[in-house]
Fold:
Amino acid sequence: MANLRFLTAGESHGQCLTAIVEGIPAGVRIDLDEMNADMARRQQGYGRGGRMKIETDQVNVLSGVRFGETLGSPITLQVQNHDWKNWKQRMAVFGEPAGEAVTAARPGHADLIGIQKYDRKDIRDILERASARETATRVAVGALAKQFLKACDISVTSKVINIGGVFAATAPDGQQPSPVPKSAMNCGDPAAEERMEQKITAAKAVGDTLGGIFEVTVHGAPIGLGSHIQWDQRLDGRLAGAIMSIQAIKGIEIGAGFSYAAMPGSQAHDELFYDEQQNIYRKTNHAGGLEGGMTNGEDILIRAVMKPIPTLMKPLHSVDIASKTPVLASKERSDVCAVPAASVVGEAMAAFVVAQAVIEKFGGDALSDVLQFIADYKSRIQGE
Ligand code: EPS
Structure:
């Protein structure tokens, strides 16, 4: 059955994080170093908290791969929590409760709604799973999806374009975007990175946090992934949903996105041209690679905004969930800014959704079948 899906499990300070990925075709070569490079990228960025000094996230592949190639069977990915050794009592699977309950809900976090909905008395029962630590497994899944996409000549990259109101320089419309950044801030504009870091230092000094915007680019996606025929098959909606599901993401735009509001139709749409070499082509990409819920062969461009992390060292006003008295919100160890990390998670989620759409359209049990289907399809479209 041609369907790609995954589930994750694990608490932030539990023993490990796990994901099961089903539907990657057989015959994809897996480069573990490349997967671990993405895991390391997620840990980077100026403004990360103490946890990142404890962890060196590495993927353990426990099933579905033999001699470095996928078998078509479910792939189990595991990431150890090195911090678990400090939490064995407080996060024990069995035994008596240990450690003080967290009762001061953080505004903006899952804390309050979680304990109300799940009928819990200790906010830790909620925050452990709501934590962005879970994104380590998403990056592992995304790294796997990327290896499949790479075999199909599709790449997924990202960059940070705004932190706390400091914008990176962007390429004017129609020009080549800046190269894929290699720095820890994943921004690609060294002058902006310096100002972003200063802004983060200043926020940290006053116990505050910062959000920002990142951009994900998918290059090489064949024409016609997703479909106009049904709401849940539209790829723009599926990408938006997947990226929006990342912790702390509050807004998405595709291509020109919110700036469409100020454009007349005559300037908004990407006009079509033809020459023998390029076949039918466009000179602009306001649509961000998606028209009618389908890929149009241009780069897919997605931007997402991350709100500032809700754990503040100068806590906000809150209410104690047990006594109902006014308190200051709890101070869990946290990050001042995690936008560079979120950009890597955005890449992972986009990679997963695009891989899912490729498998739906060109699905076969073996990679060789998928590649043959793609080649036949592309030659039909080129030949028209
Ligand atoms: C994170 C791990 C967490 C936090 C952060 C992201 O580790 P700890 O809670 O032990 O410090 O650093 O999570 C949050 C900001 C949050 O609100 O949950 C990670 O691995 O990315």
